[in-house]
Amino acid sequence: MSGIGARGLANGRDFVARCGPGLALSVLVAVAAVLLAPVVATVFAIPAMVIALLIGIALNPLAARPIFQPGLTYAVKNLLRIAVALLGFRIALGDIIELGVATALIVIISMTLTIVSGFLLARLFGQNAGYGALAGAATAVCGASATLATATVLPQYKGKEADIIFVVVAVNALSTVAMVAYPAICFWLGFDDRLTGIMLGATIHDVAQVVGAGYAVSEEAGNTAVIVKLFRVFLLLPVVLAVGWYFASATAAKTGAAKVPVPVFAIVFLALCILNSIALEIPAIAPVYVPLREALIVASTWGLLIAIAALGLGTSMKAIVALGWRHIATVSATTLVILVLATGLIAAFA
Question: Which of 20, 173, 193, 201 could connect to 221 by a Cys-Cys bridge, CB 3.0–4.6 Å?
Answer without folding.
Answer: 193
